[in-house]
Write a structure and sequence with these properties.
Blueprint (H helix, E strand, L loop, with lengths): L8 E4 L6 E2 L4 H17 L6 H22 L5 H11 L6 H16 L3 E2 L3 H10 L4 E5 L4 H11 L7 E4 H4 L6 H11 L6 E5 L2 H10 L3 E5 L14 E3 L5 H8 L1
Parallel strand pairs: 1-4, 1-6, 4-5, 6-7, 7-8
Antiparallel strand pairs: 2-3
Length: 243
Amino acid sequence: MRGLPKASAVFFDLGNTLAGGSDTPEAFKASVRAVVRRLSELGVEVDPRRLAEVRLRNRAFFNDLRRSTLREVLGVEWMRKDLEDVGVQVTPELVEEALKAHLDAVVSLRFVYPDVPECLERLKSLGYPMAVVSNVSDHRMAEETLNKLGFSRYFKTLVTSAEVGWRKPHPAIFAEALRRLEVKPSEAVFVGDDPWADVHGARSAGMAAVLIRRKPVDGGLPTAPDVVLSSLRELPDLLIEGA
């Protein structure tokens, strides 16, 4: 571990770094129920078990595609595919209604990790500009999560793969985040839970990388982080030490 350099800005991943609850079995089930309910309200009946089967199959396919290309697959694309595969005559309006039902269901389950508010408040009081960089298929997922948790006021910008088209660890999404805060990579610290997307991506972009351990990491780390933390409460003091 190298410690942190003097930083002019701090960038955060969102899912499983600041907020949990999006990639759980409960969120999957809630999404399927919400989509089926909304479609029924619009006069379209879908078997929830069939939709769940299709969603699992399509999600595996699209996740493989994302990993191999680092291109984002937008929510409207995978939702359209889900609906087509269960026999729905899709329209753009119907896809949007189903997608909004999915977003609302998942966002409602998002929760904040207990170490996050203190960390963000201290960094704000210390004057660090902050931004969120998130891999999401719909920008609204990240935006509404930040609003729900009351975090929007801490961040100067939100950069998502849905906007940029490229997913972390692709350098383009990090470059866009750096551009928006007008800082050089050598002046930036990135904080995330994913050794590949966050740590490898940030280090490859020339940024310092902090790994927050929200869960055990399988295997070795593809790229060594500058710092490994068990709690974000430790981050402000580390940044002060590097200043």
